[in-house]
Amino acid sequence: MTGADTQGSDEKVADRKVAIVTGASSGIGFGCATKLAEMGMAVLGTGRDTGRLAELEKAIGDPDRIETLAVDLIDDDAPRRIVDAALNRWGRVDFLINNAGVGSPKPLHETDDESLDYFLGLMLRAPFRLAREVIGHMKAGSAIINITSTFAVVGGLRGGAYSAAKGGMTALTQHIACQYGPQGIRCNAVAPGVTLTPMVATRLEDERFRKINTEMTPYPRLGEVDDVASTVAFLCSDGASFINGQTIVVDGGWSSTKYLSDYALNSEWVPR
Asked: How far apart are CA 218 and CA 42, in angstroms?
């Protein structure tokens, strides 16, 4: 490679945008990380399972564009460790995808303080602290995307602490959009409905859960990881440069319609 070629290559690397994706070892986070890498970005993926993070590295397949960090987001030093890892590797952070979460919540009256603290800690406090850590390193054209949920839109049966945390993320999204928009830093939320991930697969074995989602979704399938990852990728693109403070719901119409399938409408109702 000639000196001119080397210089061009170095400039190309310097111009490469960098994304942090939490919960990147599986499901939606994995899909977002690989999708952003396909767009040419460098990605720092976090998770708690080193084996799964190794699979992410393998899936992206380019050591120059992937770094992983095994970390518990609830730890006090997690935000600093995550942001430092990205800065030390690539010298910049352009996008933060706050995705990490946990499912299977319980309704209000069944939720103890330990569960409440865990849900709020992982899905509200941790994203808040990570956004606070990274915002000072972001330049105009950067963006934060918070993965919320349809349960942040409609509350949801059995939502409990999960709905509270995700609803808090919606408000945090709007605050960041308003506070830092003048600096050219956008913030939006993506609210998936039931999405076919390993975490959801076992829940779909519950007939009641399956009916609530399949018979009340007007589009003829459930959500897939790529539906959400593609929406995140769009929000990180130049085409979304004037979208700020919004929640994009990716649920096939489940939360915005009162749809019932023909099967549900024609089924015999059994008194409880």
From this structure: 37
The pLDDT of residue 168: 97
Q: Is the pLDDT of residue 8 over 50?
A: no
Whether the per-residue pLDDT at 6 is higher than 80: the answer is: no
Q: Distances from the Cα of 239 to the Cαs of 96, 141, 201, 242, 243, in angstroms?
A: 18, 12, 33, 8, 9
Single pTM value for the model: 0.92
- List residues with catalytic annotation: 162
DSSP states along 69-94: EE--TTSTTHHHHHHHHHHHHHS---
Q: From residue 16, how far is each of 19, 77, 118, 162, 189 by CA, in Å?
A: 10, 27, 36, 35, 24
